[in-house]
Amino acid sequence: MPRRSTVHEAALSNRTLVVDNGAYTIKAGFVSQAPNLDDCHTIPNCLARERDKKVWIGSEIESIRDFGEVAFRRPVEKGYLVNWEAEKAIWDSTFLGQKSELHCDPHDTNLILTEAANTPAALQTNCDQVIFEEYEFGSYSRHIGPSLNAYHDIQKLFGASARNAQIPVLPAECLLVIDSGFSHSTVTPLYKGRPIQQAIRRLDVGGKLLTNYLKELLSIRHYNLMNEEQLVNEAKEKICFVSNAFREDLESTWRSASKKGRHTQEDNTDVVVDYVLPDYNAGIQGYMRPHDPSLAAKVRKMGAMANPNGVVEDFMTLGNERFAVPELLFNPADVGMKEAGLPETVLQSLSGLPPGLWPAMLANIVVVGGNCFINGFMERLETEIRQLAPTDCVIRVAKATDPIKFTWLGGASMAADPAALKAVQVSRRDYLEHGSGWLSRVFAGTTTK
To answer: Under a CB-based contact definition with an 8 Å cutoff, are residues 439 and 447 in contact?
Structure first.
């Protein structure tokens, strides 16, 4: 009879690193006894190359002063980690650099890492091998990102009193997480902290698509900005808003444009604005200001104009671009995508659940991800979910206290409980004995440790 393999009950290290490996930024930090947002560091998850071919890695990008024609290379595409060569360069700088605040010895560190839902098995296996065979972390667990949000005090988001800090962290019983980030948006129902796989739904619209769409619109109507990703992304964050009356706002901007220069100060002042382009040489950031029709006409004749400080500035007058771009989150068909908008995706997700869970899920909807910061996004999302959901269900939609770091903080809260951490972590010793196939089954929940 062959010898039965066993899983070794090795003691875990006292140091745990939680890494929310997003497509736009990495949210990482060590777990303390009372985790808080200050423990989390945000690092750009990309490499950047300037005109002179100089390459900046991860957090070094924050030192760039001139983003003109800077090219970015991102290891995460469509939400999946596909380029470990680039990712290792960023991780080496972040976790192994002697001067880094997140420097650690992997052999003596527990790693909690997030991934996108429905990541292909080949990419998961590749990730596991890099973690254990190249970095050699002491122990490791891989989680679908939204699932970590269940370890928050969810009812506090809806106005309830805070739970007793002395009680061990338990995941919320029913939670519907809407994560609208850089690569895509997902709707993930969670039951006692575990994702209900058959009900997870994905919308291939995220911050990256919105930025690219805005680049195309501005390049057609104003200047060629196709190579200015950072400039356009900053403009998007400052000028865009979600309209609660899309058709009316669109018709209003059309009427304003049809006057061909015969504007008045009262014409559509809440939509049409001027965006002053950044001047990297002078260290001036781009900013939005109220539209001045007379000034715009004068600049068109003169080509450029100095502001009161004597600095020559260039600007774009923006109208329906401001709300037509984020409208893709609600109507992807505007650019020919055969997908439902985010509110409809929520209902599609619920259709994969037993009807008995619908009331609990609709009463506990939490929204995370960078697109939460778009003005009007939360109001429009809640309004349309209410219109589509059954009338006898209570609808409660809450934005996370920090939509960017909320997932990380959930993972840190779980890891702060030694029992919860031990239940999910797999040691490197067990991985070397049982192999990557066994590890994949453990993380998939089809076998036990």
So the answer is: no
- Average pLDDT of the residues in 246-260: 73
Q: What does the alpha-carbon distance between residue 153 and residue 170 come to, in Å, rounded to a whole number? A: 9
How far is 139 from 18, CA to CA, in rounded Å? 12
**CB neighbour burial string for 359-391, b if at least 16 within 10 angstroms, e if fewer:** bbbbbbbbbbbbbbebeebbebbbebbeeebee
pLDDT digits over 57-96, tens only? 999 999 998 898 899 999 999 999 999 999 999 999 999 9
Say if residues 403 and 368 touch (Cβ distance below 8 Å): yes
How far apart, in whole angstroms, are the C-alpha atoms of residue 124 and residue 69?
34
Q: What is the number of helices (H) and of strands (E) in the chain?
A: 15, 22
Given a contact cutoff of 8 angstroms between Cβ atoms, the answer to whether 395 and 383 are in contact is no
Handedness of CA 288, 230, 279, 43 (dihedral sign): positive
315-318 and 273-276 beta bridge pairing: antiparallel
Q: Are 176 and 201 spatial neighbours (Cβ–Cβ below 8 Å)? A: no
Q: How far, in Å, CA of 237 to CA of 372, rounded?
A: 11
Q: How many CB atoms lie within 10 A of CB 140?
A: 25
